[in-house]
Amino acid sequence: MANFSYTAKSLDGEIKTGNSDAENIRELAQSLKGEGLVLVKANIKKEKKKSIFNFSFLSGKVSISEKMLMTRNLWIMVSTGLSLVKGFSILSAQSKSKKMKEALLDIGQEVSKGKTLSDAFKKYPDVFSELFQNMIKAGEESGTLEDVLKVLSLQLEKEKEMNSKIKNALIYPAILITTMLIVGVMLAIFVLPKMNTFFMSLHTKLPITTIIILGSGNFLLKYWYLFLIALIILIFVFLTLIRTKKGRFFIDTALLKIPFVSSLVKKSNSASLIRSLSSLLASGVPLIKCLEITSGTLSNFYFKQALYGASKKIEKGEKLFVSLKPYQNLFPYGAIEMIEIGEETGKTSLILKKLAEFYEEEVSNAAENLSVIIEPVLIVFIGATVGVFAVSIIGPLYSSLGSI
């Protein structure tokens, strides 16, 4: 599937531009025809090559917190009747991110020249997502910009909370593993070589585990640079693989099969997916467009495929819950049934909002439970490692001293 930038003409002669995913130009033309547009011109967008080491402090990536505060303040300004040009000038002065500051200043200038707010935001796709842009556009067209900004600020707030809870749950295990690796390397470099010298001087027969541990210490001491180079290469290869389709597919497949982790992955992706759909539908965006936009916000391969497949079935006249049923193994139990109730009662957006809130709470609980499970497993692993070290080093040491 490719991403096309297109120019199309409506039935009343209005020229429209935009971006859309499609297998080929013919499929794109059919998709636009369904929206009452005639394709005039289309080009495949070339993706910019991403840096392998994508650190936010080097790339100038704007944080979710920064976007959330900007959106909330813009909502307050719009609700009080402040002009957008003045509003963006104030927002730019408040922003701590240089990238956001420059973007907001330029958006204010574009609006002052007569451009719509949604068109001005489109200049900065790396700062404001397609979901953000389309919701702003829907708000402008329906005259509900204030309500849309309120929904967007809530969307970003919930996204920040969910990401924060998952990261916090994994901080302790990460610190524990890092500390264990540092201590292990320090022992291998500074302690084991001295122990090896001592045992060599005694000329005693050592257990195989002791020989392996002492040998690893000697290797690290003599060839530490090879270990460092190998580690850098492994990290480089891993980061390169996860940026490829095959690598991403492999990781997403593995995550959905690991016990406890699979539940967290399903619930977090479902919560993000349902929250995005709810926000877009509430803003008046057509369902098929909602699915296309939401698909772009997800990182998991299987959830992307589910939304793409669902959108194709909806184009043929099927309902949302029917089109998602073939992928029900991806969603937590009861999600598709609740969507069915929403469609039958005409309250899809409201039901999706309630579902998103429920699964966001479930993600929080699942992250805490995962942390609780990981901690004892790590403690047992560390205990086993210390036990092997004690038996392999301290045991032969006492035996040698006893024979002297």
Describe this structure in words.
The chain has 404 residues and is mainly alpha-helical. The protein has three domains: 2-44; 64-154, Up-down Bundle (Receptor-associated Protein); 155-404, Type II secretion system (T2SS), domain F (Receptor-associated Protein, Up-down Bundle), CATH 1.20.81.30. Helices cover 73% and strands 6% of the residues. α8 runs parallel beside α17 (348-403), α9 (208-222) packs across α17 (348-403) and α12 packs antiparallel against α17. The longest helix has 58 residues, at 145-202. The radius of gyration is 28 Å and the shape is elongated. 28% of the residues are buried. Mean pLDDT is 80; it is low at 47-59.
Cross-sheet strand order for the largest sheet: 2-1-3
Low-confidence stretches: 47-59
Quickly give the CATH architecture of the largest domain: Up-down Bundle
Number of domains: 3
CATH homologous superfamily (4th level) name of the largest domain: Type II secretion system (T2SS), domain F
Main sheet: strands, sense, barrel: 3 strands, antiparallel
- N-to-C span: 74 Å
What is this structure, in a nutshell?
With 404 residues, the chain is mainly alpha-helical. The protein has three domains: 2-44; 64-154, Type II secretion system (T2SS), domain F (Receptor-associated Protein, Up-down Bundle), CATH 1.20.81; 155-404, Receptor-associated Protein.
